[in-house]
Amino acid sequence: MRSLGSAIERMLATDQAQQSAKALLSDRELEMVRFVCRGLRNKEIATRAHVSEGTVKTHLHNIYQKVGVSSRLALMRVAQERGWVAEHAD
């Protein structure tokens, strides 16, 4: 019974984290955060998202401002702490 309770708690926490992220960031911005957390460079993100590298830079600038960070590493840390991305995202 405890494991079921724990599973439900984890599911609720994940759902709350996603709601928190969606309240702060657009779906496209969340996609950019996930790409950054996978370790992709701007050019790689641009290719996967079918946008220009300049668009990626603009998205990241906006994300940094909304989240209150100034680097990719800080963004990754916040995303992990807030549960916006899986611990072992591919």
Short description:
The chain is an all-alpha fold. It has a single domain (2-81), classed as Arc Repressor Mutant, subunit A (Orthogonal Bundle), CATH 1.10.10.10.
SSE layout and pairings?
Elements: H1 2-24, H2 27-37, H3 42-49, H4 53-67, H5 72-81
Helix pairs in contact: 2-4, 2-5, 3-4
Low-confidence stretches: none
Please give the CATH architecture.
Answer: Orthogonal Bundle
The name of the CATH topology is: Arc Repressor Mutant, subunit A
- So how many helices? 5
Computed Rg: 14 Å
Largest sheet: none
CATH superfamily placement: Winged helix-like DNA-binding domain superfamily/Winged helix DNA-binding domain
Number of domains: 1
How far is the N terminus from the C terminus? Answer: 32 Å
Number of strands: 0
Strand content: under 5%
Backbone structural class: mainly alpha
Order of helices and strands, N to C?
A: HHHHH
Instruction: Give the class-level CATH name.
Output: Mainly Alpha
What level of helicity do the residues show?
Answer: over 70%
State mean pLDDT (0 to 100 scale).
83
Choose one word for the global shape: globular
